[in-house]
Amino acid sequence: KKEQLQLLATVDAVTKDGTYFNLAANMNSVKEMEIALKNGAQGVGLFRTEFLYMDRHNFPTEEEQFEVYKLVAENAGQASVVIRTLDIGGDKQLDYFALPEEENPFLGYRAIRISLDRTEPFQTQLTAILRASAYGSVKIMYPMISSVDEVKQANAVLRRAMADLDRRGIAYDPNIKVGIMIEVPAAVTISDLLAEEADFFSIGTNDLVQYVLAVDRMNEQIAHMYHPFHPAILRMLRTTVEAAHRAGIPVSVCGELAGDERAIPLWLELGVKDLSMSPQSLLRVKHRILNTNAAEAKGEAAACFKLRTSSAVEERLSAFAERSS
Ligand code: PEP
Ligand code: MG
């Protein structure tokens, strides 16, 4: 089975009736690049940069970061690499950067909020990413955006990083695409406004589910309430994708739901073609796409959007996945 799946690495991810998907990899380390390429990833849809900042005593320098981003960009060839700026806080801590003790870390000092508060390390990271953009198809992505102002403020720091590189005479892609994660309910609600500020959206279902359902993604005791197929989530997905389509910007999904083959009908019905998932999920999802009839799957998904409970949606999508395997 595993050997058979491996044969799919170089095969296009296309449904029986000709709908193509682009399957990219989420990466938590440089080591994973090898698995991603082996499993036929079409680029990196989410490069989590946290690991560069962890297990050390100080912020990584511009040079250190640049070397890593450049390596990944070069390895990806023509395919794009979406580098997400630091998403620390919440469950992730840094030894050398004492984050305050908080009652609700996931609602607290986290991700873009830290970057906009501590703009110096943020600018250093953006500078390193910009430099790597001269060596491949690199894109920037901001995590945990909840307002238009945050995007504007982050872009102001980005412009400073560009001006600095101009002064130093160092090359970068001046037209680099800058996207945002949609993972906070407010971002979904104002996705039409955010679509005017961003070059692309990537939906982070891991945090989105946590915030929409008010269910801590780390809390075992309420893990049974963590329902990616909750009707509220389906509606949020639809709102976001429609806003992106109306604005004419690309929208991808990079949360765990992208790696769940039962969700394929939802992407087909919504018109999402770009999925990014852990490298280990790529071949399994591709296998299911190859065995899916898009027209039929859309019908199933359309019915799911009318269902009233998480379990009804989950059962229906599971049954469909079973039938098309
Ligand atoms: C997400 O929230 O869905 C996501 C992809 O980001 P992370 O899991 O790193 O928070
Ligand atoms: Mg997230």
From TrEMBL:
Entry's family note: Belongs to the PEP-utilizing enzyme family.
Positions of the catalytic residues: 254
Free-text function comment from the UniProt entry: General (non sugar-specific) component of the phosphoenolpyruvate-dependent sugar phosphotransferase system (sugar PTS). This major carbohydrate active-transport system catalyzes the phosphorylation of incoming sugar substrates concomitantly with their translocation across the cell membrane. Enzyme I transfers the phosphoryl group from phosphoenolpyruvate (PEP) to the phosphoryl carrier protein (HPr).
Protein name in UniProt: Phosphoenolpyruvate-protein phosphotransferase
GO biological process, one term: phosphoenolpyruvate-dependent sugar phosphotransferase system
Cofactor(s) the record lists: Mg(2+)
Reactions catalysed according to its record: L-histidyl-[protein] + phosphoenolpyruvate = N(pros)-phospho-L-histidyl-[protein] + pyruvate
Annotated positions binding Mg(2+): 183, 207
Cellular location(s): Cytoplasm
Keyword ATP-binding on entry: no
Coiled coil: none
Domain PEP-utilising enzyme C-terminal: 3-292
A GO cellular component entry from the record: cytoplasm
Annotated residues for binding of phosphoenolpyruvate: 48, 84, 206-207, 217
Segments crossing the lipid bilayer: none
Molecular function per GO: kinase activity; metal ion binding; phosphoenolpyruvate-protein phosphotransferase activity
Documented EC number(s): 2.7.3.9
Keyword terms, alphabetized: Cytoplasm, Kinase, Magnesium, Metal-binding, Phosphotransferase system, Pyruvate, Sugar transport, Transferase, Transport
Shown residues in whole-protein numbering: 250 to 574 of 587
Predominant location category: cytoplasm
